[in-house]
Design goal:
By secondary structure, the chain is of the alpha/beta class. The chain has helices at 5-12, 27-44, 57-65, 76-86, 138-150, 155-158, 170-177, 190-193, 196-199, 235-247, 264-273, 284-292, 294-386, 391-419, 431-444, 468-485, 520-523, 541-551, and strands at residues 15-22, 48-55, 71-73, 89-96, 108-113, 129-132, 161-164, 183-187, 202-204, 226-229, 255-258, 427-429, 451-456, 464-466, 495-503, 506-513, 556-559, 568-574. The structure holds adenosine-5'-diphosphate.
C-alpha cells in the first residue's frame, strides 16, 4: 500500500517533525535557548525526530503557506497574522520565569539617554528622531506604536525621523547611546539584560506600573509566544506534541509551556493600528467594500462600461446624423438659392410679358403727348408765319409742351422701373399707396381706359411689409386679366373695382371685374402654371401671383362675385402696425 509509506517509514526511522521558529537572535543564542525544548520533545516522542528551522518573518510565512513545517513558534503578532491568513492554531503558550503570567509577558520599552532632561514622557517625542527594529517588529515597534497613536502621535507623520534599523535589538540601543536617535523602541526586559555601564546611561520613558512584571515597560503587556499547528498537521501528532509540551519541566532559564493564552489583545492592537491582518481597514471603505461585495462591484463595473459604450455610440451616431443633416440643410439652402434666382427671373419675365401685352396700347399712349407737342409746335409756326406770335402764346404753348413731355417721361419712367431686373426686397408701405401706384402704371399704358375704382376700407391704417414691385406686379396682373375678361363689353361698361379692407391683422385686397367670369371647374386650375384659355396666353401670370403672395405670408384666391357678372380675385397679407 503506497499511501502507508510514511507510517512504515516512521516505524523504520523516526519521522522528522519540523518546527518553524521566528528568529530574532543569532543562531548560537537561539540554539542555546531552544535546545532543552528539542531534547524534551525527542525524549517524549520517540517515533519522531524534532528539528528546529529558524526563519525570518517572510520565510516563516512562506513555510506556512507551503506547509513545509508542522509547527510554528512565533511572536504573538506574527501568530495572529498567520492564524487569520492560514488558519494556524495555537496549542500552547510559552511560560517564562520572568513574566508574572503568560498573558502578561511581553511589552516594549521606549529608551532615551538618561541625561535627556527634555524627554520625560512618550508625548515628548513629537518631532524627535526615533529608532525602532522594523515596521513588522512586534516588541520592537508595534506595541509602542499603539501607545503613541493613543497619545495622538503618529510615528510616521509626527516624528522628525523614524529609522528601522533591523535586528538584533542592540542596534536600536546603539543608535540611542551614540546619539543617532533621541529615542529607541525595544522589547521590554532587553534593557535589563544589557551591561550595567551602558544601562546606566539609559532611561525608560513613561514606565508603567505593572505589578510583578520584573522589567520596565512603556507599553501595556501582551501574551507570550505561542506554538501553533498548521491545518495539515496530523491531529495525533499535534496532540502528542501538546501533551509533551505541557509536561515539559522548566528549563534552566525558567522556560516552560502552558495552556494556550487568549490573543484577543493582539487582535485589538492590529485592529487599532489598521495593520497586519487588519491593514484592509486602512485601505478605505471603498476598497474593503469592493473586496467584500465584488460580484456587485463587478456588475456595477460592467454596467458602467456598458453605459460608457452606449453613450459613446449614441454620441457618435448623433454626430454622424448631425453631419448628414447639416449637409442636407446646406444642399437645401443651395437649391433654395437657385430657386430664388429662377423665381426672380420668372417674375421678371412675367413683368416683361405684361408690358409686352400692353405695349400696343403703350405706343398709342406715348403717341398722344408727342402728338400734342407736335400740335403746339405747329401752331407756334403758324403764328410766326402770320405775324400773330405773342409772348403769351409762346409761353402757353411751351408750358403745354413741357407738360406733355413730362407726362410721356413719367409713363416711360414707371415702365422702366417696373421692367427692372433686381433681387427681392422688403419695405414697409401703406397698401393703398401701392395699389394707387399700380393703377397709375396700368392706366398710363392704356388708351382706352376702363373705369377703375379704388375703395380703401383700411383708412391707411397699418402697413404691409412687401417688395413694392412684386405687390404692383400682382395688382397689375389681376387688373390686366380683368380687362381681358371684359374685351367683349362696350368700352363704357368696362369697370374694375379694387377694395382694401382690414380684418384683424390681415389685409384683404379684392380686385373685381365685370367680365365673362369663369366656369367653376376651370377655377380649380386657375393657379396651375400654363393654365390658360387665351389663344396667345402663357398661363403663368396667376401662378406667379400666387407664389408672390404666399412668399409674403398671404393667400390668393378667386371667387364668383356675390352678385352680377365677372370674377373677384382676393389676396391677403399680414399687417404690421
Ligand atoms: P394668361 O392670362 O396668360 O392666360 P393667367 O395665369 O393670368 O394666364 O390666367 C390664367 C387663366 O385664368 C386665363 O387664361 C383665364 O382663363 C383665367 N382668368 C384669369 N383671370 C380671369 C378673370 N378675371 N376672369 C375670367 N377668367 C380669368
Amino acid at each position: 500500500m503506497v499511501f502507508a509509506g510514511p507510517i512504515l517509514a516512521a516505524s523504520a526511522e523516526p519521522r522528522t517533525v519540523r518546527i518553524g521558529l521566528l528568529a530574532f537572535l543569532d543562531t548560537e543564542a537561539m540554539n542555546s535557548q531552544w535546545t532543552p525544548l528539542l531534547d524534551h520533545l525527542a525524549a517524549a516522542l520517540p517515533d519522531y525526530k524534532p528539528v528546529l528551522v529558524q526563519l525570518d518573518h517572510a520565510a516563516l510565512r512562506e513555510a506556512v503557506a507551503g506547509q513545509s513545517v508542522d509547527f510554528v513558534i512565533t511572536n504573538p503578532g506574527s501568530y495572529v497574522a498567520l492564524e487569520m491568513e492560514f488558519g494556524i492554531s495555537r496549542i500552547a503558550t510559552l511560560d517564562t520565569a520572568q513574566a508574572p503570567s503568560p498573558m502578561r509577558a511581553l511589552g516594549s520599552a521606549v529608551i532615551v539617554r538618561a541625561d535627556r532632561q527634555d524627554l520625560r514622557t512618550l508625548a515628548d517625542l513629537a518631532d524627535k528622531r526615533v529608532s525602532a527594529v522594523g515596521e513588522d517588529a512586534f516588541g520592537g515597534f508595534q506595541l509602542a506604536w499603539r501607545e503613541f497613536m493613543q497619545l495622538g502621535l503618529d510615528p510616521f507623520a509626527d516624528f522628525a525621523q523614524l529609522d528601522f534599523v533591523g535586528l538584533p535589538m542592540r542596534k536600536v540601543i546603539d543608535a540611542v547611546t551614540q546619539g543617532r536617535a533621541d529615542a529607541g523602541i525595544v522589547r521590554a526586559c532587553i534593557v535589563e539584560d544589557i551591561p550595567p555601564q551602558i544601562r546606566a546611561g539609559l532611561r525608560v520613558l513613561s514606565p508603567r506600573v505593572e505589578p510583578d512584571f520584573p522589567c520596565q515597560t512603556s507599553t501595556r503587556l501582551y501574551p507570550d509566544w505561542p506554538i501553533a499547528t498548521l491545518r495539515a498537521t496530523p491531529p495525533t501528532l499535534a496532540k502528542s506534541v501538546a501533551t509533551a509540551l505541557l509536561a515539559m519541566p522548566a528549563t534552566p532559564q525558567g522556560m516552560s509551556w502552558t495552556v494556550p493564552a487568549d490573543y484577543q489583545s493582539v487582535h485589538e492592537l492590529f485592529r487599532e493600528l489598521q495593520t497586519g491582518p487588519y491593514s484592509y481597514l486602512k485601505e478605505g471603505t471603498l476598497r474593503a467594500a469592493a473586496v467584500r461585495y465584488w460580484p456587485a462591484v463587478l456588475m456595477l463595473a460592467a454596467l458602467l462600461i456598458a453605459w460608457i459604450i452606449y453613450t459613446v455610440r449614441v454620441e457618435y451616431l448623433v454626430q454622424a446624423r448631425t453631419a448628414e443633416l447639416r449637409q442636407a440643410l446646406d444642399e437645401r439652402k443651395a437649391i433654395e438659392g437657385r430657386m430664388r434666382v429662377h423665381q426672380e427671373q420668372v417674375e421678371h419675365l412675367s413683368r416683361l410679358s405684361i408690358l409686352g401685352e400692353l405695349s400696343g396700347t403703350l405706343a398709342h399712349e406715348i403717341n398722344q403727348p408727342l402728338a400734342s407737342i407736335g400740335n403746339y409746335a405747329q401752331s407756334l409756326v403758324l403764328r410766326v408765319d402770320s405775324g400773330r406770335l405773342t409772348d403769351a402764346a409762346v409761353r402757353e404753348a411751351s408750358v403745354e409742351m413741357a407738360g406733355q413731355a413730362e407726362r410721356a417721361a413719367g409713363i416711360l419712367g414707371r415702365i422702366r422701373g417696373f421692367a427692372r431686373k433686381r433681387a427681392s426686397v422688403r419695405e414697409r408701405r401703406v397698401p393703398a399707396d401701392l395699389v394707387r401706384e399700380a393703377v397709375v402704371l396700368f392706366s398710363g399704358m392704356l388708351s382706352n381706359r376702363p373705369e377703375i375704382r379704388v375703395v380703401d376700407g383700411t383708412a391707411a391704417n397699418g402697413m404691409v411689409e412687401v417688395d413694392p414691385l412684386q405687390f404692383q406686379q400682382v395688382v397689375l396682373n389681376l387688373l390686366k386679366n380683368g380687362l381681358d375678361a371684359m374685351q367683349d363689353l362696350p368700352s363704357g361698361e368696362r369697370r374694375l373695382h379694387i377694395a382694401l379692407e382690414r380684418e384683424g391683422d390681415t389685409l384683404r385686397v379684392a380686385v373685381r371685374d365685370f367680365g365673362h367670369g369663369l366656369a367653376p371647374e376651370a377655377r380649380d386650375h386657375l393657379f396651375e402654371p400654363f393654365f390658360t384659355t387665351k389663344p396667345d396666353g402663357l398661363g403663368l401670370g396667376l401662378s406667379i401671383c400666387a407664389t408672390i403672395v404666399e412668399a409674403h405670408g398671404g393667400r390668393l384666391s378667386a371667387q364668383a362675385p356675390a352678385e352680377g357678372a365677372g370674377l373677384v380675385f382676393t389676396f391677403t397679407l399680414p399687417i404690421h402696425d
